[in-house]
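Lab notes, practical 5.
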Amino acid sequence: MRLRAVSTFLICFVSIVSIAASAQNLAPPVPERITVHSNVLNEDRVILVRMPAAAQGKKDKYPVLYLADGDGHINEVGAIIDFLASQGRCTPIMIVGIPNTNRTRDLTPTPATLRGPDGSAQNAPATGGGGDKFLEFIQTELFPEVEKRYQPRPYRIFAGHSLGGLLAIHALIAHPDMFNAYIAVSPSLQWDDQHTLHQAQQFFAKQKEFKKTLFFSLGNEGATPNAMGDGFDQMQKLFTTTVPKGFIVRSARYPDEDHGSTTFLAHYAGLRTVFDGWVMPREPGGGVPVGGLKGVEQHYQELSERFGFPVSAEQAINQLGYGLLGEKKIEESIATFKRNVELYPGSANVYDSLADGLEAAGKADVARQNVQKAVTVATETGDPLLPQFKQHLERLAAAATTANKAGQAK
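Output from the prediction step:
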């Protein structure tokens, strides 16, 4: 993002971000429908793939959130992701939504009679128990198809609600290498007399180190006490005494939301948990990143190591540069912008920002050269900021012409 009012950067930045966000396409990205034939399940599965709003016009790679009950929640979760990404609270994420063909079969790890939150039978046949086969489909057939088509980042999240939340916890303990993070919304831990809960208790009693993330939640599931609430309480209690090294686990209860309405708050909190620590720490009051340029680079290096893919520090370094420029620390600002050029030479904006610093230092010719570089790179990459870079170049060229005429007149 380019900022012109450098002297008022710290005051204007939040407003500019809000304006930029509101200028995005108001219609959410429409999910692509693909069909994957499953030999494991012996059926065709329709899959919904939603790219993040930030992907429009770009060919970047993104982490993937695999979503159970995909057709029911993909717009809701997509909107949350786009909002968090626009606020710098997470990276943009693509969603692979999996609509159901036989929900009870696929989302339950063991056969059992379908029961409600209070534990009462729901007059449904015992069609469950296909959870492991469903996960086999995801791992051996869906993962390769997604990777072939979209080349995503090597970070996967699984999110599910109700029986999908039950499957999320089952996947965490039975297939821990499939996903990096799990969001279990109102998990049906009452299934099969709390079989999955008991497995989780045994599993975590043996774990010394477990580098995964789990968020689980519960809404108002009816009269209390009930079997679903009891399972949730026991799951919470488990992690008050047993938390393996490296395991990030949080939970929340939403008594003002019912089983259906709780999903929005839970998905938001779950994603915030997965990306906890994503935001660059800042000094109180001034908004300056802790540790300056070195602090920014260290923060993003640690994020890259944690998530297993390069997390760009470009925007944060750019903001730091303009912050220093607004404080009239011109040489420090130029050094910061130059570091951004070193780290991200394929970005057009880093050259344009460096030009602002050089211009403030009275180095108009070198500034113009950098804006020309920004125009060249933006043209090659299809950067949507190309018109702004061209305007910047025209302004500097006009200023140079005026200065030359003034010099000749003398």
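Observations recorded by the TA: The beta strands are 32-38, 43-50, 64-68, 94-98, 156-161, 181-185, 213-220, 248-258. The mean pLDDT is 88.
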